[in-house]
Amino acid sequence: MKMSRFLVPTLKEAPSDAVAVSHQLALRAGLIRQEAAGIFSWLPLGIRVLKKIEQIVREEMDRAGAVEVLLPTVQRADLWRKSGRYEDYGAEMLRIKDRHERDFLFGPTAEEVMTELVGAHVNSYAQLPLILYNIQWKFRDEVRPRFGVLRSREFLMKDAYSFDVDEASARHSYNRMFMAYLNIFARLGLSVLPVRADPGPIGGDLSHEFMLLAKTGESMVYADDRALGLPAPGTPPEDPQALQALVDERLSVYAASDELHDVAEYESRVEESHRMEARGVEVGHIFFFGDKYSQSMDVKLDGPDGAQIAMQSGSYGVGVSRLVAAIIEASHDDKGIVWPAAVAPFDIGIINLAPDKDDVTLLADTLYNALQAAGKQCLLDDRKIRAGGKFADMDLIGLPKQVVIGPRSVASGQLELKDRASGETHNLSLDDVVAALTQD
Ligand code: 5CA
């Protein structure tokens, strides 16, 4: 992509109402644009990051055996009346009337729609277990939307729903999702702690939040610091007991968010030198709620002995758009964003310092074409602006690798290759730059 034909509206200063560093940098790097309180447009760089996160989440859901569907954003109110949540949800629900005065709403979550969908198409226990997921925009009329896409009103969520015939099998589904979450966050390059949590309005008796430690986090996390940095589990075992043992092992290290923090237990189980108290951003939340929705919505199916049974279910959310901000919170410096390679909007930024000079442009284009042909995603800054602005913008948007090409590169045959995270630079020939950037 050539920057002169792209849209990256970078800003020198963030607007004063942006207090979280991720909000400031997302605006300054031209990822998002606020359209109304808590409602954003995704600009070209932002949407590329969002899609990459979405794809990693999708691949890990598929690997865990979940099946993708796409539900509507606008849902029927009567489904929510059936479950009893239409009134309970209160002012957070955006209620809509159609031209026939029928009640609809912009979905804040989808337990009702999914439960009814499964009830309509699954009539026997033999069709279970089933885990369905969708990656869709949600709307919650938050009292205090803030921190940009960290707590917005419209946001992209991956929500999965498991349907099982009994509680033991439902716990196995819960455990599969638990492990899939650890894999997702590891692939995103994030150090995320699973903590036991309060299920809140979703209901149920078993729930975990996945917390990314960050200064702007809205909850406190109390943990044994050895819980951080454990390796990703990879493909989990099929055997339910083996999987339960792995989940138990992960959860044996103390970690809780403020609501369920037990000071006495914490102090007795965690030596002082390992106690960690930090703020966390909730990037995922999983719930086991048994037959709550199956019962309230009267969705039953034929059980093994012919009698009608209610399904045992859980729901599993990841804040896909929130993750864009969460990753920036976790990975930035005083110059701007430092994207982990897995989600960077482009792999490589090339700066052409003299787009007016044919020989410099030829060299920059040759590198660009060679890298693109090798499957690398490149952003070539060919804008006719001063060099300082190009360097500042490239650091601000945070692509993992940068190559600087100017008149001196033509004269010496040496291009400057820079690693964004470490700031290290190397002067290399064109061929060596291509080799270094395409070796993996
Ligand atoms: N139905 C369940 C699981 S699918 C559910 O809705 N869970 S939730 O309320 O915890 O939301 C799931 C995830 O969505 C959260 O962990 C968070 O990462 C994200 N999320 C929730 N509210 C917002 C918001 N206002 N802005 C951005 N992301 C949000």
Any overview of this molecule?
The chain is an alpha+beta fold. It folds into 2 domains: 3-337, 2-Layer Sandwich (BirA Bifunctional Protein, domain 2), CATH 3.30.930.10; 348-438, Rossmann fold (3-Layer(aba) Sandwich), CATH 3.40.50.800. It is 33% helix and 28% strand. It has helices at 21-28, 44-63, 77-83, 85-88, 111-121, 167-187, 240-251, 263-269, 292-296, 320-330, 358-373, 387-397, 407-412, 430-437, and strands at 32-36, 39-42, 67-68, 74-76, 94-97, 103-106, 130-139, 154-164, 192-196, 206-213, 219-224, 255-257, 275-290, 300-302, 308-310, 312-319, 332-333, 336-337, 348-352, 378-381, 401-405, 415-419, 425-428. Strands 3, 7, 8, 9, 10, 11, 12, 13 and 16 form a 9-stranded mixed sheet that branches. It has a 5-stranded mixed sheet with strand order 20-19-21-22-23, sandwiched between helices. A 3-stranded antiparallel sheet has the order 4-6-5. The two termini are 21 Å apart. The mean pLDDT is 95. 5'-O-(N-(L-cysteinyl)-sulfamoyl)adenosine binds next to strand 8, strand 13, strand 16 and helix 10.
